[in-house]
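Second attempt. The first submission of Testis expressed 11 had a stray character pasted in from the spreadsheet, which I only caught after the job came back as garbage. Lesson logged: always re-copy from the clean sequence file. Corrected sequence (874 aa) follows.
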Amino acid sequence: MIFVSWTLKIEEMAVNLWNWAITNKMDLVINEEQKAKVRHVACKLIRMCEHPDASEEAIQRQILMSMKTGKGWVDVGNVALADDFFQSAMTSLEQLYSKLTQRSPTEEHVIMQKNTVERDLLKVLSYQAEAAVAEGDFQRASSCILRCKDMLMRLPQMAYYLHTVCYNLGIQIYKENKYEESCFWLSQSYDIGRTDRNSVEPEMLAKVLRLLATAYLDWDSSEYYDKALNIINLANKEELHPVGLFLKVKILLKNEMANQELFQTLMEILHFGMSLNFCLNIVKLLVDHERGSIGFYFLKIICEHFQSSEDTSKAQLLHIDMLLQRKEEMFAKEKVEEIIIGHQTGKPLASELIGYFHSIIWKQAARSFQVHNFDNALHWYCYSLRFYAADQSDLDLAKLQRNMASCYLHLGRFDKAKEAVIKAAQRDPRNIFTQFYIFKISIVEGNSGRALEAIITLEYLLTTEEQHENNASTKRSSGVMLFSLAAQFALENGQQVVAVKALENLAKYSEEPPQVLTALKCLFRLFLPRVSQMPECENKKKEMDRLLAYFNRALLNLTQLFEGEAWTLASKINEAHWFRKTAWNLAVQCEKDPLSMREFFVLSYKLSQFCPSDQVILIAQKTCLLMAAAIDLDQGRKASTAFEQTCFLNRALDLICKCRDIWNLLKTTGDFSRDPCETLLLLYEFEVRAKLSDPLLDHFLEPVWELPHLESKAFETIAALAMEMPACYPSIALKALKKALFFHKRKESIDVLGYSKCMHSLVNLLVPDGVPNTELCPMEEIWGNFEDALIFISQTEGYPEMEILCLMIKSWNIGIFLYSKRMYVSTEKWCSLALRLLNYLGSLKSTYETQVNILYSELVEALEKNKRSAFNEE
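This time the job returned cleanly.
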């Protein structure tokens, strides 16, 4: 009892769920796939309640639910799930049939019940056919449908249903270009449909046959053309329809039917009373299939046949179009004159045909223009202009005036061209093509100011209106094309200033990197000769800034060019080489403008990154970065504020790091032992770190002291930089100067002058303002340095006299300083050193000797008086 109760509850739940799906589908709450899922669950629940003694009603419900669920899954494309439900429906049908035959009292009743079951069986088989088609299983699908077809003898009322199923399958397969299978389904649809003419109308049978003929035709095999022709004839017998007649002509053309037989069919069309539009479409079909002669002849017959029709103008226009295609201009002009006169004297063209008329005329004018027959082009445009007399507000009239202006320009009739352009501007001043012709007229007249205004207006129209238009991209590309043509026209007429503006706009608005780069190269070729001859002034600075902007745009477009595939790699690299070399040459010319020089060097480096990293490119990159870093350092030294100086120094440090990477790579390509790059990088980086007060400066210098290739000059530079504001590192300067002196003395050929300068720097560091810096260096070490200088002077010739004098004065001042400190013994030692240095003076000795000796005597006398204080000295 409990089991029965649960079964009933599940069954009730399943039915309620099923009904809910139907109700909510009608209310559009759930979509088809969701509906299939709900039905799936409901059907599964019902199948859980199956038992051998189920009632006929329950079995019929199971059949219905299984069929509907399977069909739902087929409709949403999930055939795999559908098959299970179709098999379940088949099983339930067998069960129902068994029950019905067992309880039916008479044979007549058995037949009736069997028909009921077979009707559902046919539907299941048709659903299985649809599922098989979805899976691409033609054999299975056709087998199912043929079984259904056999059942129609017992179920004639299902003929319309099966006919429709086959037709829909034929359409579905035709769309997938499976013409052979489509022909099978459509043939079955026709065969089934004609067995039940009470239900299937002739129009529907004709429709099936037309699609079947189309499938045979599209199969594109000549062996099926005859079959297609027979089928379309059959379709036209079922229903005479324009589509059927059109298709018949198409089949005849495909079958390359002789003109005589084809003409018979065409005359049949007239006999059947087809419309003028239909007949004209037949003419176009004939022309498209290269049967222009018979098409032209048929068109003449059409014109005569529909002479009294209001729509005859359409035939006349097509006649003109065909005459022009056949290059029979004289006859075409006569027909055009007839239409124009008729339009102006009470036989106006329909509004929908006016555009067609102008299209024919303009196409012929364009053909003449292309072969440079500008007089003839004007003649055809004048036909169009005469037609516009009735409607002067059309914007196309402005376009017509522009086209006529172009012809006049080519013919050298500038007054007429100007007149046409003025008329175009009156009607359509905001048109970019109108402005372009204003520009051309201005160039021809030599009015560069007006030409520039036209270019500026063209740019304004391009930038301000494109955001409000749907065809903004088309207008932009047209505008870019006009800038290109304008630049070319201006250059051809010697208007360089105007050409520059057009080229700048071309480079600015074009979205094609090759076009942008070509425009920029033209600009450089125009500017470089002029800029190189300009004196240093504000105007030259402006021109240099403009060139820098050009390079930045070139850099951006080279990036895009290398990302694309339009050019070969070699062509791309050649472009990059051209721009990097140009940037280098400009940098070299900016000797008096270091900031511009720096920017050009940096740009040359960036542009060179598009080139293969061979030795030549690496050397160029290294040089660019070194020069740019040097300029940044120099600007940092001149900076008026600490913030400005920091910016320059940080920028220099970035360039130095990049340069070091390139230098390390370059060293692997050859011998660069004589290249000073490494030393310069070291000095540049030291200067930056020193002036930025880098806390790791000593750590940075640790390996530097041990470098074998550094010479005395490098250490002297380190010393100078260590004390150059805002840096202040006296201990580093002292160590560097000692290193420098060591290297000076170690040379085989001693540079006396260099040694003296280095010693001078050391003495100034140790004894600033005449007072020894004992915090930096003890007195004994200071004394040692002076003695070293004296020994060097005594052993070499050519020591600068002024340097000896400086040492003498410094020595004397130290002695006097010590005297003030009551250090009398040391005082005498330092002053005696001054007297010894005095002996090595040349021409200056006589000047200082008497004075120094007197001072020394006075000092000795003072020292004698203070001998008792000698113990005060430490």
